Amino acid sequence: MKAPIKIFSGSNSEYLAGEIAKAAGLQLGKSSITRFSDGEFEVCYEETVRGAQVFIIQSTYPPTDNLMELLLMIDAAKRASAYKVIAVIPYFGFARQDRKDRPRVAIGAKLVANLLMAAGVDRVMTMDLHADQIQGFFDIPVDHLYGSSVLLPYIENLKLDNLVVASPDMGGSKRANTYAKYLNAGLAICHKSREKANVVGEMTAIGDVDGRHVVIVDDMIDTAGTITKAANMLKEKGALSVRAIATHAVLSGPAYERIEESALEEVVFTDSIPLKSECSKIKELTIADIFAKTILNVYNCESISSNFIL
């Protein structure tokens, strides 16, 4: 007898989880969270998960409380005799800490991987990790999906002539090059120097953008300092229009104001992280369908490679 499938949501991803469950033709499972006055909280499943394959959907942003909630939900499912527990983490918090880039710092992404495995998770499903090598931090299967599955069709439907794909920094050049090849477009790279974390110094562009429509590609936008400075600089160099696409709308601090006041015509995100405010330039595309298909493929032991564009 095949194990039943059940989908649950952490408190940070309820809307997305509901859409994923709907796209998969399933009901979202019932769970609750009790919060104590000192900040401690307790999670509980309000229905049986015994013998089931349990998919828990939770983006870990903001990372600390949502990560802890996910760990507690994994532990609760294991202790309730779930057959398999799969953590579906559309946005993987702490992914920017994937290496020791200076002395005496932690490798946060590896620590999170250890915590998830210690909690008892059997599989992890995520999207557009900040660094692909984070998959190697796990000793369990990791399904790494790509936001390009919804972002690339959007760019194609714009039907822009003289298109150039730009990377906001040297680190994203591989991603931008992949998009450029798929779209048969030109490539530009913005070179920046950082004064400190989240603060951009000088910036220049490598590549011809004069008289071109430019789309800046990134995995996430945090304070929007880099992306807006890049857009303004590209516009000054003669770009006809500048757009940005990114998978994860972290958007902390003055991000919304910076986007609204920048030269960007629009910024397109997926709904991996719920938007905290409104902005006339921000457009959101859903990733519910791709996660629903992948969840069903994993449950039915089928290949998931057909779900990828890049």
TrEMBL record:
Pathway(s) annotated for this protein in UniProt: Metabolic intermediate biosynthesis; 5-phospho-alpha-D-ribose 1-diphosphate biosynthesis; 5-phospho-alpha-D-ribose 1-diphosphate from D-ribose 5-phosphate (route I): step 1/1
GO cellular component: cytoplasm; ribose phosphate diphosphokinase complex
Reaction(s) the record says it catalyses: D-ribose 5-phosphate + ATP = 5-phospho-alpha-D-ribose 1-diphosphate + AMP + H(+)
UniProt enzyme class: transferase
Note accompanying the cofactor annotation: Binds 2 Mg(2+) ions per subunit.
Keywords from the UniProt entry: ATP-binding, Cytoplasm, Kinase, Magnesium, Metal-binding, Nucleotide biosynthesis, Nucleotide-binding, Transferase
Residues that, per the record, bind D-ribose 5-phosphate: 194, 218, 222-226
Alphabetized GO MF terms: ATP binding; kinase activity; magnesium ion binding; ribose phosphate diphosphokinase activity
Enzyme Commission identifier(s): 2.7.6.1
Major subcellular site: cytoplasm
Cofactors required: Mg(2+)
An individual GO BP term: ribonucleoside monophosphate biosynthetic process
InterPro entries tied to this protein: PRib_PP_synth_CS, Pribosyltran_N, PRTase-like, PRTase_dom, Rib-P_diPkinase, Rib-P_diPkinase_bac
Binding annotation for ATP: 38-40, 96-97
Function (record text): Involved in the biosynthesis of the central metabolite phospho-alpha-D-ribosyl-1-pyrophosphate (PRPP) via the transfer of pyrophosphoryl group from ATP to 1-hydroxyl of ribose-5-phosphate (Rib-5-P).
UniProt family annotation: Belongs to the ribose-phosphate pyrophosphokinase family. Class I subfamily.
Protein name: Ribose-phosphate pyrophosphokinase
Organism: Labilibaculum manganireducens
